[in-house]
Amino acid sequence: MDRPSTPENFCVLKVPDTEERAHFFDHYDRRGKGDTLRGIAEQHGIHRNTASKWLKDRKEFGDERRVRKRKAEKQGNKLGRPFKVPLETIESLLDDSQNPYRDAPYFLQARANQIPLSERALRYNLSSRLDAHLYVASYSKDILPANKVYRIQYGEEHKNKPLYGYWDGVWFTDEEHFNPRTSFQKPRILRRRGDPRTKGSNLRTRSEMGKDSRTVHMYAAVNWYYKSALNFYNDDSEMLTPPKPPRKPRKSKYQTEKQYAEEIKEWEAKKPPPLQVVSTGHHMTQEYYTETILPYYCKLVQESRAVDTLGITTWRLQEDNDPSHGTKSQNNIARDYKTANWIDVIIHPPQSPDLNPQEDLPTEILEAIFLNLDPQSLVSVSQTNRLIKRLTTDAPIIWRHLCKTQFKTWDSRHNIAAKFAAPLSDVDWRKLYKTRHTIDRRTRELLNRIVATQQGRIRCINDIADYGYDAKETLLRECACPDDAEDVLARRYYANAVLERIHREVAIKVWTSLHDGNDVPIERALGAYDVFARVGEEVDVDIVADDISQLANGLLEKYPAFPDWSPRDKASTLAHYLREQGFNGVPDTSYRALRNSFIGLVLRSAAHESLPLISVAIYCAVARRVGLDARPCGFLFHVYTLVYAPKNYDLNGKYKPTSSNELDYMYLDPFRSTSEVRRGDLQRTLRDMGVPSSEHRSFLTDTNTREMVLRTARNIMNSVQMIRETEAGMRTVQASWINSSPDMDNAFYATIWAMLLLGPGDDTANLGHTTIRRRQYLPYLLEHFQMHYPWDVTLLSRYVIPMFYNQPEGHRLLQFVQNMHQVDAIRKPVITRSERTRNVAFKVGQLFQHKRYGYEGVITGWDVVCDANEDWIQNMRVDSLPNGRNQAFYHVLVCDKSVRYVAAENIQPVGKDVRPSEALLKLAGRHFKRWDESNQCFVSNVRDEYPHD
């Protein structure tokens, strides 16, 4: 027998769904020249007439995805199933007379009004059919006229009472009741969108919260000098003794189950109901307050009386106007208790703000309180309830205060001085604070990664450096981490390294701006050397400018009539004033001291010793602020000051109109004296030195800031060269850099950058000469870069490579930078100890003394045999050593900052009682976490490379 089957000519027609329509339209829109509508319809299994109708509907109603809906709307219908609940029932929910639960959640309104809908369905019905939602309710709490009178009387009575002698002797008390339902959920009411929230039917009268088993009760007191503990108490119903219930009957053996059940039912009916305290809201009974809470308040007052040191003669108690406090009548147990304990009470007016910040304290007072909180406390307070959270979130004055007090250094991109001076509403202070807080957190995370692993170290350092001065405070805190920190040496070293990297870029930006032709004040251009070579909270070009401004302000305070004087008198007085402040040049014995070329150090030092160039720069910077036109004059082997009179005036202040552009001028030497220097004396000096007369003008006219920066670079180079020559004459390796300020290597590195950025010009005529001059600085730059500052690779990319963009050096530098980033991104090769390394006797972290040269060093790595190139082996005569090149060789860090490659036979471990020098401790953080006193070695921070050391 054949299986039943559908006849071949039978076709079950189905309604094509939206997906099939979409496929059809897509095919139709991409049809070829030979495709017909019938053919496309047959491929999709639909009739040609259906396809035509679909195309017609799309043309009339637009997007095919909306055809059905728009057709239904055109016919006055709506797609989908009909609503279960009539519209009249839904509308009745908005009427207080028909729905007394308008301020209840959706599910309670549905249950109370017997609406057969879930919470979600009811919410959808209300929003889609009536555009109604649960909105935050608006409340009114008018102060009664009588209470207004009390408040005025209270203010008049106490408005002249002093803080010390009256208010500092008052204990302010209050009780608070915390309920999660009311504290974290604002009451809401059901109404239409756009319906005024203050409309009569939408306005609610604020009432006290009823008693709830979930409520926590607490009380406390505060005084100007003290604050009490936060105490908790139970509901006052605990004081009531419930009546004893009747004894439960026992079943007799003669009773049936039915009879005993009836007897139990009768016994249940005879049980007394639970007693309840009749009170409104959270007002406790006076008896409960007197027995439980008031004795604690009185004890605080009595203990305060016993303290004689404060000198307060009268201590008072101030309660709010709760009925339980006994302030509304003369004879009651609460008042009698206070009288018996000699307690003076201040009657607090009703409906007034009191100790509890949740009881309608004015916003201004809350903001004043919040301004005295640290960020952590402010966050904690904001989580207590939504009102305070909204106040702390929406009050820009609080966040501006935090930005001003919590952060001292800001990156220049914020232009923070202009923001602080602008109107409060012009800046999103909360967002700005969050940005800084995020940067602080991210800086700590990146620094932890830098300290923890060598992989990606350069990338992380530059990621922090991109934050600029926003990361400075965090790095300074890390530089001052406690001595007992697990990784104290590494953390201090790399925090300082990142900070130096940030400072260097700040200085480079100043010089780049000067190179681009911008007007950079001389004190900022020279202050960039301080920023480049030094780190610290007080190191910045803005601080240099502030120090100059303080000198100028001091001058004007001492001589109020200074602005009215002649240029000659101004120039002489300014020179006298600076010498009175200690700017008297420098003795010959310390003339070449490195610190004398750093304007920031000169301004902050006690002696203010400086080279002539710095003395002149300070003079010109102060003169600029007090209205005197003073400019540096780059004389031969010295720097003078040129002081110009205003146009059409002479130096004595007399009006002398002239068509010439030449200004009357005079020379001063602030470095040596306050007297005017004659031009003839300077010309005679030039002639004595053999300078041709044709070149005199270049030495006697004013010099631009760029030339002063370059001249400072040459002075620094000379000082560094003198220091190195002195150390070279000594037979032992010196660590004198530890006592040098600024650091000699940082200072020399700064001069290389300054020469590279500002040295030769970029004019087309001398382009070849410019390239040659810049090439001369590259070897010195790369030498310092590779030895001390490998994390400056980003600075090479941003500022050096563009200078050699079309030169062979640019291509090689670009490859060099790319290789450094690639090496930084991969893990260090692991070097393990095995049978092959048995001749490696010393470990990474061991402190030693070189047998031949006697210098102090620490081992940072090793090779089984000498791994240097053949040229180095020959130059160092390695094969002449007793053990030759086949002995172990060690990479070592020396106390003079040098990195050396030492044969095993020259390693002499130090004794047990020998500690590393301060210089070596400061350098060791690059490779080690800390010094282990018990094991007499450094704790390795390169275990990813040397896991067994």
UniProtKB/TrEMBL annotation:
Pfam families: F-box-like, HTH_23, Transglut_core2, YccV-like. Residues 355-402 form the F-box domain. One of its GO terms (molecular function) is DNA binding. InterPro entries: F-box-like_dom_sf, F-box_dom, Hemimethylated_DNA-bd_dom, Hemimethylated_DNA-bd_sf, RNaseH_sf, SirB1_N. It comes from the Eukaryota. PANTHER family: HEMIMETHYLATED DNA-BINDING DOMAIN-CONTAINING PROTEIN, SI:DKEY-261L7.2. This is F-box domain-containing protein.
